[in-house]
Amino acid sequence: MADSATSRQRPSLGQMRSNSFLQDHQQYKPPINQTIGEVLSAQLDEVTLTNPIKPDPERVTDSGIIHSIFNHQSNQLPQGTPRIVATIFYKSANPVHPHYHPDASPALQPGDKLPSPHIPAGSAPSVDIEKIPREPPAPEPEPLDHIYGPYVSQLCLTNFLQTLESLPTPYQRTNTSHRCLDREEHPRVVEVTISPPPNPAYLSFSDLRKHESIWRFEREWNVEVVLQQESVFRRHKRLAVFDMDSTLIENEVIDEIAKFIGVEKEVSEITERAMNGELDFSASLKERVGLLKGVPADVFDKLKSVITIAKGARELCRALKALGFKMAVLSGGFQPLAEWLAGQLGLDYAVANHLEIDPVTQTLTGKLVESKPIIDAAQKRTLLKSIAAENNIPLSQTMSVGDGANDLLMLHAAGLGVAWRAKTKVQLEAPTRINGESLTDILYLLGLDNEDISELGKATE
């Protein structure tokens, strides 16, 4: 009798013929005798139990990338791990695309045409598309600063960190930190410290400085990135040498002299080609000086009234002097004006070319003084090294600033070589480039912030 009762409770093939597959299989599920409250309380009790396969949170964190912008300080890298410092400058005076979309700018009207694409300065030997026998340049990236703010925004900073992580190097945990050097709200200059740097076996530091991903990041966010290897000597330089023309002053002196005799066009064309590295500097200098034959020797006194000292040059030199720097102007220009400029800025050395003067007529002969060396690229590098040695200063504690091709050797020889608003060729080849409005931007590369710069200014008053 019991067997027949049991057989009646078993599902039979005939019973599994409903229109619902789920209903057919409900008979195999155990009955639910719990209320919803009992189910929820049981789940809460399970949470307190130890899960034997739960991952260790420290181990998970250790396998990731830690950014200090998230204020997470655990799992620090070993002491002595190499670091690199990226100083990010927002180019507030030089927007990537000066013409906003008509929807975003009341000054423009619907239908206004945007300018045609062009090659940005510093990205190719020529900025003239017609002279490049290749396909037209790729469209410019979207200018994200117009969307997220004309400053180094938090999203800009995050994107920079993502750019570094995406570089083709073996994966490694990276610690980063940042500080705003000019102001906390809407900063123009931000310093980012990254540790460790990419493995040099896969990506050298010199290649990292010129990496295409960083260049694209600069274009997208309208910024410039200066990368330096962090050390005590990055922050404590002791010697600064400067080019004169188009660096400490806004003029090209030889072009100004040429105006007196009406050969400005001829001289300026040669000057431009020489500064771009298209001509031998010494040969081009002799050619230009030859055009100045007969100019009165007192021309340098007259030029002082038209010479414009570059913006920020006085403030930069005062700050460096307060820090105990030795400073020099090494110029491919001419000695009388180099000495005058050194007096104006408080420089310790002034070395430039010497023009020969006819003692009878007191006019320029169109020649250089043969007993004096020509201040070309090699001579500038030699002078940098000799001045450093004279003052017992290692090259790692030196800084050089220039804009022309004849400055490249000293830019590479110095501990920090800065191409300041330089010619295209120089921007491509120099270790560091800045195109700011004021020379005081160079102080940020030494790790100084606005408070430091202000204090240095007060110390020299």
From TrEMBL:
A Gene Ontology cellular-component term: cytoplasm
EC number(s) given by UniProt: 3.1.3.3
GO biological process: L-serine biosynthetic process
Keywords: Amino-acid biosynthesis, Hydrolase, Magnesium, Metal-binding, Serine biosynthesis
Region listing for Disordered, in residue ranges: 1-27, 100-140
PANTHER family per record: PHOSPHOSERINE PHOSPHATASE
Protein name per its UniProtKB record: phosphoserine phosphatase
Record organism: Penicillium cataractarum
